[in-house]
Amino acid sequence: KIASLMLAGVMAVSMLAGCNTTSTDPEQPTDPETPTTTGYSDVLAENLSDDAKKDYIAFEDNADDLAALEDALSKLSWTTTAGYTLPKVATPVGDWGADDTRLMVSDFVDALDIENIDMTYDWMRADLTGFYNMNADETVKYGLMYVIDGTVDENDALEWIVDDVEGLLVNLPNVNAEDVARYTYDYTVSVSVANKALDVIDWYNGSANFIAVTVTRVPTAA
User: Fold this and answer.
1) Proportion of the chain in helix, strand, coil states, percent, rounded to 5
2) Nearest Cα residue to 135 out of 120, 122, 116, 148
3) Which residues are CB-neighbours of 89 under 8 A, at least 6 positions away?
4) Are the beta carbons of 210 and 158 closer than 8 angstroms?
5) Helices and strands (H, E) in the chain, number of each type
């Protein structure tokens, strides 16, 4: 009996010791970091000079711009490129002799309430750098649109529009004129790129990349 009691005591001590032992899970491998995706707005900014990247100008992709561009492009038909050669350089859409381009641009303009309804550079620059007292107390949005052969890399395509954007941004004023109600201006530049498949004739299938650049000006009363 004494031996049995001693054996039971040893077993009990062993069980308690086992309960106090903590298990350590093996260290889990660390997942590799997901690379940061660079937006088209940032790509454009990288190609601009420091003079065009002022502290009151931001470069940000805009989901609403992209949605409006894709919706407008959905209405283009095969007649858009019938008889025309897709340009290998980014060309203003207004210079491209496409039958239904005007309607596509109109859809984009209406969706975003863009001021220069023909999406031309001259109108945009005149308002933002020359007549900047006009609608000084309102948020306004202007835009440009380009088309290029879909086989050209989008990042390379942006290099073709740098001069236009550069010429605009370096001249954007930070304040309106002294002789009217004074406002400071901040701007956001957004770039959207969308591809459109264009079936021209039975034996040729092509695509075009459409590039939209918008500049939104937001006033703040000084």
Assistant:
1) 35, 25, 40
2) 116
3) 148, 160
4) no
5) 7, 5
Which helix (H) or strand (E) segment holds residue 183: the answer is strand 183-201
The answer to whether 176 and 183 are in contact (CB under 8 A) is yes
> Tokens at residue 196, please?
């459109």
Q: Has residue 40 got a pLDDT over 80?
A: yes
pLDDT tens for each residue of 79-105: 555 445 677 888 888 777 666 788 889
Distance CA 50, CA 158 (A): 17
B/e letters for 99-126, b = 16+ CB within 10 Å, e = fewer, are eebeebbebbbeebebbbebbbbeebbe
* Distance (Å, whole) CA 103 – CA 106: 5
Alpha-carbon distance 114 to 110, whole Å? 7
Residue with tokens 């901040």: 186
